[in-house]
Amino acid sequence: MTNWLPNLQAADGPLYVRIADQIEQAIGIGALPAGSKLPPQRNLAYDIGVTIGTVSRAYAMVRERGLVSGEVGRGTYVLGSGDNDSATAVDTVSARLIGTRASSAPPGKLRFDTTAATNVGQSSAITDIVAAICREQPSEIASYTRSFPADWLEAGRRWLKHGDWQPGHDSIVPTLGAHAAVIAAVSVITAPGDRIVFEHVTYSQVSRGTALIGRQSVLVDSDADGVLPDDFERVCVQQHPKLAFLMSSAQNPTLATMPEDRRRAIAAIAKRHNVFLVEDNLYGGSTENGLPLIAELAPDRTFLVGGLSKSVAAGVRGGWIACPPHLAQRVRIAHKMVSGGLPFLLAELAARLVLSGTAEAIRARVSDEVMAREALVREIFAGLEFNSHPRVPFVWLKLPDPWLSGTFRQAAFAEDVLIDDEDEFKAGRSEKTFHRVRIGISSPANRQDVVAGLTRLRRLITSGPSGYDSPA
Question: 3-class SS at 208?
Answer without folding.
Answer: helix
